[in-house]
């Protein structure tokens, strides 16, 4: 049976693996997904060269939305683009 220390150790190993995969993913092309919370409509911007470029764009768009939008806010998220047939494999 697995004890608490082993579970913590497994959790730490999995967290390191996930973190490493996310770091590799940052260098891939990304898109910005914008969702209108009132209507549910979604739009996409990009591709951007990497995750940081997409994140910077999303933050600028969010700031404009906060300044100009008097209704429901828009939500912005960033997503990696994977080569065809390689979803989630980094």
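Sequence proposed for the structure above (90 residues):
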């Amino acid at each position: 049976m697995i004890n608490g220390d082993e579970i913590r150790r497994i959790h730490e190993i999995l967290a390191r693996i996930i973190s490493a995969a996310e770091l590799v993913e940052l260098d891939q092309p990304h898109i910005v997904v914008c969702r209108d919370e009132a209507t549910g409509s979604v739009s996409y911007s990009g591709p951007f060269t990497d995750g940081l470029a997409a994140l910077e764009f999303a933050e600028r768009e969010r700031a404009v939305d906060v300044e100009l939008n008097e209704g429901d806010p828009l939500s912005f998220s960033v997503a990696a683009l994977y080569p065809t047939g390689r979803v989630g494999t980094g």
